[in-house]
Amino acid sequence: MAFELGVYSFGEITPDPFTGQAPSARQRLRDYVEQATVADQVGLDVFALGEHHRGDFAVSATSVVLAAMAERTENIRLSSAVTVLSSEDPVRVFQQYATLDLLSGGRAEIIAGRGSYLESFPLFGYDLGDYDALFAEKLELLLALREQNPITWSGRFRPALRDADVAPRPLQERLPVWVAVGGAPPSVVRAARLGLPLALAIIGGSLFRFAPFAALYRNSAREAGHDPDALPVSINSPGFVAPTSRQARELSYPYFNRGMLENFHERGRGFHTSREAYDEQASPRGALVVGSPQEIIDKILYQHELFGHQRLLIQLGFGGVPQKDTLKAIELLGTEVAPVVRRELAAHG
After folding, report:
1. Contact present, 244 and 343 (Cβ < 8 Å)
2. For 10-25, what is each residue's pLDDT tens digit?
3. For residue 81, what are the β-bridge partners?
4. How many percent of the chain have pLDDT more than 90?
5. Which residues contact 285 (CB under 8 A, 6 or more apart)?
6. CA angle, 128 then 54 then 61, to 5°
7. Which SS3 state, helix, strand or coil, does residue 86 take?
8. How confident is the model at residue 264 (pLDDT cuts 50, 70, 90)?
9. CA dihedral defined by 323, 327, 332, 334, rounded to 10 degrees?
10. What is the pTM of this model?
């Protein structure tokens, strides 16, 4: 596949670090639809939204918001980021994203994960003690739903299916399902053995430290009988772009820090990020994709040397960077970053 560049958001509702005012959920949802529209217009490849179930996040019904985007866009792929499959019903997930696929003309994707935010487990009556078993079983069912209809299936955590007709069916022959992982090698190996694309989240630390995960993924896929060259890898990281490096960092840092304090994992467990630490993570070898268009290009090319990946998704403006600045960042990614990266990587095979 040609290299793809896109953006994602978790849907956070964060008080502005300068005014203390937080946007309404309605405003955030309208912001995301506008962002996806602009991303489509400037030629980005993917727009993805995360799923959360707390008052300081606007997006719990991800497929609904993506469906609104589908009606305003033409080409961009629309994905979850991630679907917390452990606390979802795979039948409903399949139906929702098959519906999105039909509405969008075959542009829907699912990025499924176990979930680093855990509020959905008690909300929907699941035991955190079953954290991994839930995901394994539900992923099995979701993949089975792609392949057969009607379906007969049974497991521990969901009522059995007997010749169940699961409709509608998507426009795409096989609804794309990626597996999202953080720093857990067993999760990487599971994705590889199932022959599923890997979405590797890198939110901090040195990029070099994560290179072994890509190698583990490809080696495990080969051992399982899959062609690793046919399995795409996505790197998913926070970032921001502005005309100059200084503008990118000064614009994004206050919002990133406030987001880490307010929205990171469970309420009341935020983390302060110093400006020095932020700048270090935004350096060429750090995890954050922050800088001028040329800096972003250079970072993607360096990432590609390490990971050989086919996609980069940027969590753009985490913490609620103002909409006008976010839209400008999307425009820069589509018009100045993406064409150069595609050209450079295509030239080098």
Report:
1. no
2. 999 999 999 999 999 9
3. none
4. 92
5. 206, 207, 208, 302
6. 95
7. helix
8. low
9. 140
10. 0.96
